[in-house]
Structure formats: structure tokens, C-alpha cells
């Protein structure tokens, strides 16, 4: 038997509280997103957290937590009483106690993401095996969902694709399982490069299909499709580069964009692309277009 303490707090308090919990006997500490918010690395090698984060802390079944809980409840600057919960979990279940929250997800008619502890719901579909990660994306956020649904409707088979800002590699792998001939996965964070390589291997993607690069190592090329789920500011900064990376009559898909940022992004990319009507979901936006001939 084990005791699991679940705490919701602002991310800026996570580091200090983690140290307190370790000193109080926590055997392990895990982080979960409390509000389905994407996080993006602004500095290579950094480990960003969500603004509102859940800490899951595992304690021995005999650990005395009353004093710790009293101290936490008094610290109202960090959290309030409603953000604390303790439960007892079975010896064999603690590693999987959080897994029940993650189920297979469908994007369009023929694309699924499923966690490694489940079987793909439709073995005949294009399936991506991907477990939830800390910061790189597993398909649960609206921006990733928008991109995956677009990929599912795009003509990807036998095409050359760039996934710029690949993170976990979910979009690169999505393109590969949908039949892309070659996928170039790009990220400025070596951890993301490693995650993409690992997830590609776990999905049995041939090495020659997905190639990973730091931005400065990406060779000169022009792809049929470029997809970038990052942030509005880098999308603006990279607009000229992206235009050069897409073939004439090729397609671009951009996300990580808020609704109020649509006019600025459209005005920028319309210089090179015939842009489609924005797709908006939960204040997040997908912009797509075709490279002008």
C-alpha cells in the first residue's frame, strides 16, 4: 500500500515545494498539466512547466502526513485547501494509477494516438503509439489536435514533409504513418530530438523515413508540406525561411496561434501563400495555405 498526495499549484512554486516534499519523505514526484495548457521551450535544454501544475507525490503507507498537510494548508500563497488530496493506492497499482486518465484519441477518420499500455482501437488505421510526456506534446492539446486532423485530410502519401518544432515527434510520426515518403523533424532542443527519435523507433518507423535535425543542420531543400506547431512570434520570425522551404503549390500548416494573432500572421504569410480561412477551436487557431506559383 502507498499514500499518494496530489497538489495543485502555480508552476513558480514547484521547485521549492518539491524540495520540501522530498525532505518530508516523498519517494517520487510526478508533474501533470492541471489545465490542458501547451508549454514550449524558449531556451534549449530547459524543462518548462505548465502555469498550473499537479504534483503527484508518493509516500510509504506508514508515513505520517498530518504535519505536512497542516503546513501546506497554512501556505495559502502557494495553494489552498481545495487543491490537496490524499488517497491510498494498492501496491501493484501505484505506477499505473495515473494511466486511467489517458485514452486513445481519434483525429479525423483514420488517425489514432494510443498509449503503450493499450491496444490500438482500429488496427487497420494509421496508429501512433505515444505516451504522455512532460513538455513535448502527446496529442491532447487543441493545437496538436488541429494539426493532426489537418494531416489526416492532407495528401501526405509519398510526399516530403517538414515538422518544424517537432517536440515529441507526434506530427512527424503522424505524417510517416499516413504514408509520407520522407519526413524532416526539426527542433532547437536536443531533448526533443531525442524524444522524436525514440518515439519514431517505438512506432517502427524506418530510419530512412524520419530524419531529425537541429535548425542549423537542416539541409537546403523544398518540401511538399511544412507543418509548425510552435508560437506566433517564432512563426513570424521564421516566415521567410518557411516560404523558402516549401515547393511551389506545396502546403503549409501553422498552429500555436491565438485568435487575436490571426491578422498579423495572415498578413505576413499571404506574401507567399494563398491562405485558407482560419480554423478556430477553443481560442486556438490553425492557419493553412498553398505556396504561390
Structural summary, described in words:
The chain has about 290 residues and is an alpha/beta fold. It folds into two domains: about 1-100, Alpha-Beta Plaits (2-Layer Sandwich), CATH 3.30.70.260; about 100-290, Rossmann fold (3-Layer(aba) Sandwich). The protein is built from eight helices and 15 strands. Strands 8, 9, 10, 11, 12, 13, 14 and 15 form an eight-stranded mixed sheet that branches. A four-stranded antiparallel sheet has the order 2-3-1-4, with helices on one face. Helix 3 packs parallel to helix 4.
Structural topology:
Elements: E1 2-10, H1 14-23, E2 28-33, E3 52-60, H2 66-74, E4 84-89, E5 105-107, E6 111-114, E7 126-129, H3 142-153, E8 160-164, H4 170-177, E9 182-186, H5 190-202, E10 210-213, E11 223-229, H6 232-237, H7 239-245, E12 246-258, H8 262-269, E13 273-275, E14 279-281, E15 284-291
Parallel strand pairs: 6-7, 8-9, 8-11, 9-10, 11-12
Antiparallel strand pairs: 1-3, 1-4, 2-3, 5-6, 12-15, 13-15, 14-15
Helix pairs in contact: 3-4
Structural key phrases:
293 residues; Alpha-Beta Plaits; Rossmann fold; alpha/beta; 8 helices; elongated
In short, what is this structure?
With 293 residues, the protein is α/β, with parallel strands linked by helices. The protein has helices at 14-23, 66-74, 142-153, 170-177, 190-202, 232-237, 239-245, 262-269; strands spanning 2-10, 28-33, 52-60, 84-89, 105-107, 111-114, 126-129, 160-164, 182-186, 210-213, 223-229, 246-258, 273-275, 279-281, 284-291. 35% of the residues are buried.
Amino acid at each position: 500500500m502507498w499514500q499518494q498526495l496530489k497538489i495543485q499549484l502555480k508552476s513558480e512554486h514547484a521547485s521549492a515545494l518539491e524540495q520540501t516534499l522530498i525532505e518530508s519523505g516523498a519517494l517520487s514526484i510526478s508533474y501533470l498539466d492541471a489545465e490542458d495548457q501547451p508549454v514550449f521551450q524558449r531556451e534549449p535544454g530547459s524543462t518548462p512547466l505548465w502555469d498550473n501544475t499537479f504534483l503527484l507525490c508518493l509516500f510509504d503507507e506508514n508515513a505520517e502526513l498530518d504535519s505536512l498537510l497542516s503546513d501546506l494548508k497554512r501556505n495559502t500563497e502557494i495553494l489552498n485547501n481545495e487543491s490537496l488530496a490524499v488517497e491510498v493506492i494498492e501496491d501493484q497499482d501505484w505506477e499505473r494509477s495515473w494511466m486511467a486518465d489517458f485514452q486513445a484519441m481519434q483525429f479525423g477518420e483514420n488517425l489514432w494516438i494510443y498509449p503503450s499500455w493499450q491496444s490500438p482501437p482500429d488496427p487497420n488505421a494509421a496508429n501512433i503509439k505515444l505516451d504522455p510526456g512532460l513538455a513535448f506534446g502527446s496529442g491532447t492539446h487543441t493545437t496538436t489536435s488541429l494539426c493532426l486532423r489537418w494531416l489526416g485530410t492532407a495528401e501526405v502519401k509519398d510526399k516530403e514533409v517538414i515538422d518544424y518544432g517537432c517536440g515529441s515527434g507526434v506530427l512527424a510520426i503522424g505524417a510517416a504513418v499516413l504514408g509520407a515518403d520522407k519526413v524532416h523533424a526539426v527542433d532547437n532542443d536536443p531533448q526533443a530530438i531525442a524524444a522524436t527519435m525514440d518515439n519514431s523507433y517505438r512506432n517502427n518507423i524506418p530510419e530512412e523515413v524520419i530524419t531529425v535535425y537541429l535548425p542549423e543542420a537542416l539541409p537546403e531543400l523544398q518540401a511538399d508540406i511544412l507543418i509548425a506547431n510552435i508560437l506566433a512570434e517564432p512563426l513570424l520570425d521564421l516566415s521567410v525561411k518557411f516560404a523558402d522551404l516549401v515547393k511551389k503549390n506545396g502546403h503549409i500548416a501553422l498552429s500555436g496561434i491565438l485568435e487575436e494573432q490571426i491578422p498579423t500572421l495572415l498578413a505576413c504569410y499571404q506574401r507567399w501563400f494563398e491562405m485558407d480561412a482560419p480554423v478556430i477551436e477553443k481560442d486556438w487557431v490553425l492557419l493553412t495555405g498553398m505556396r504561390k506559383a
